[in-house]
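Weekly structure sync - notes
Attendees: PM, LS, DV (DV joined late)
Agenda: review two folding runs queued last week.

Item 1: First target. Sequence and structure tokens pasted below for the record.
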Amino acid sequence: MLTTVFRPLHDRVVVRRIEAEEKTKDGIVIPDTAKEKPAEGEIVAVGSGTRHEGGNLNPPDVKVGDRILLGK
């Protein structure tokens, strides 16, 4: 299987959306009409960060594997 490797530049990140559960914790099935798009994701790749005017590198606050909330 072909796997694509992303290497974001600067302060960019690549996020994989985490799909919402089909059932609640109590086992109730959620119909498609009541589902919202998931607002959670996992960091797949992280850029090196941004440079300050002095040339110092400011690394990103997130790392690969972190779970994040996505804005709507």
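Item 2: Second target, run right after the first with the same settings.
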Amino acid sequence: MIFPLALAIPIAQPTGGLPGNRLRAADDGSMADQILQVKWKSAPEDHDYPAAADYLDLLGDQAVVDAIVAELRAAPVVVKKAKDILRASQLEALTPDNPHVRRDLLKVNEGRKLSPILLVRGDCRANVPMLIADGYHRVCALYWADENIEIPAKIAAMP
């Protein structure tokens, strides 16, 4: 996907996979042939877990939230494609002009590390979508850069 020029964000095309997804900036006059790298932190930041808990608190009681957050903290980091995360969550991607999506796109362009996202597994037998407990804006930003980008994530089951 091409970023709208009005956003003043380099137009990028994929050139590789995780770890460190590589985006090659298109010839837009100022960033021709520059390679951009999506950089990742090795683990979610400490503040990501309370952010996930705040969201999950809207969906379940405290015991459920505590169990999910404990499982997220203990879960290994895995990688999933941006398009698959959105499909499993049944959410639409926010557009690149969303301020939070734009902020995350700028972080990628500046070479800043992004935090892995936090997910709660859905249930296909009951048609329950996966939850993006923390990191929805990062998923959307990276989806617009390349829907096949693999995003580091921790996944917990719904208790």
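Discussion on item 2: The beta strands are 12-14, 22-25, 35-37, 39-40, 77-81, 113-114, 117-120, 131-134, 150-156.
Action: LS to circulate a short write-up before next sync.
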